[in-house]
Amino acid sequence: MESSKDQTRRHRGIARAGFTLVELLVVIGIIAILISVLLPTLAKARESANRAACLSNLRTIGQMFLIYAQDNKRQIPLGTQSNVYQESYWLSLKTSSADRRFPTWGPLYQARLMKSPAYLYCPSSADPWYQYNGPENAWNPDNANVRAGYFLRPMYYDGTPVLWRQTGTVPAPPVTGRAGPEEWRPMPKLDKMVNRALAADLFHSSYRILYMHKTGINVLYSDGSAKFQDRKPFDHLPSTWPMPSYLTSPWTSNVPTFASLPMNTTGAGANGTMAGIWEYLDREGGARPNPGFIFP
Predict the structure, then answer these.
(1) Which tens digit of pLDDT belongs to each residue from 118-127?
(2) Which of 51-60, 75-84, 91-100, 139-148 has the lowest mean pLDDT?
(3) Of 124, 266, 272, 278, which sees the most CB atoms within 10 A?
């Protein structure tokens, strides 16, 4: 039978085995410090993985362009669905009960090159409007308006805008402008886009870049390669941007600085800024400079 002295010793041993309040606070403090040190590292690792996955997506898009070109006399779908360069992300649009259109990215869908459509979306995107099958962008091209997660190039190799018709039956090729009757012409040929940028992460404002890779964008080039481009040079854009004579204001109304663009650039006034960025991306890819661009 255990004596009272033995019981006292055992209770004292149990008490000595526990943590004091000060010791617990020290342990909690150490854990908090470790978390604060590890979280940025984990975030960087996650973004690095997402950036690599995004580059892989763009290379897949490059392969789809090549397949499309082989089946369509070397032509590839480029352009924007309105006179706003930003609107080159559309894949499917319904303007009326009788009019379902597939502009910009749509021809790749119609050519059945999107059996795994998630490659059209950057995994870093924090905006539900540009996420694959997200709450604001359900994947249902035949019955809903669908946005891709990347910009398609809105212009030819020479800087001429490529516009998709806004009404009418589908499929429909691009048109040159809307100042007069719609004028039809073939889509650009891949062979003419030497070293040109064909697609990229969304960049219609600095805020949009913060929604994705924070410090820059991934870009796809006509040779199928893809690389990361820092956004800092976007703040030093051309002071002039030549447009065809039939595309008057607001195409050439102003060239706002990149940093001043609002979260959602809905007007054509930013076209000069966006055109300058595409030209810069071309030059980074080794393309011959368009002489119309004058960089400060």
Answers:
(1) 999 999 998 9
(2) 91-100
(3) 272
The position carrying tokens 């290379």 is 59
- The three-state secondary structure class of 121 is coil
Least confident of 155-159, 182-186, 188-192, 267-271: 182-186
Nearest-5° Cα angle at 242, 255 to 250: 50
d(CA 182, CA 184): 6
Task: Report the distance separating Cα 140 and Cα 145, nearest Å.
Answer: 8
Model's pTM, two decimal places?
Answer: 0.79
What is the arrangement of strands in the sheet containing 216-221, beginning at the earlier edge strand? Answer: 150-152, 197-201, 216-221, 226-230
C-alpha separations of 48 from 52, 69, 119, 246 in Å: 6, 32, 17, 44
- If one counts every other C-beta atom within 10 angstroms of the C-beta of residue 191, the result is 12
Instruction: Decide: 145 and 94 in contact? Cβ < 8 Å.
Output: yes
> Is the model's pLDDT at 251 over the cut of 60?
no
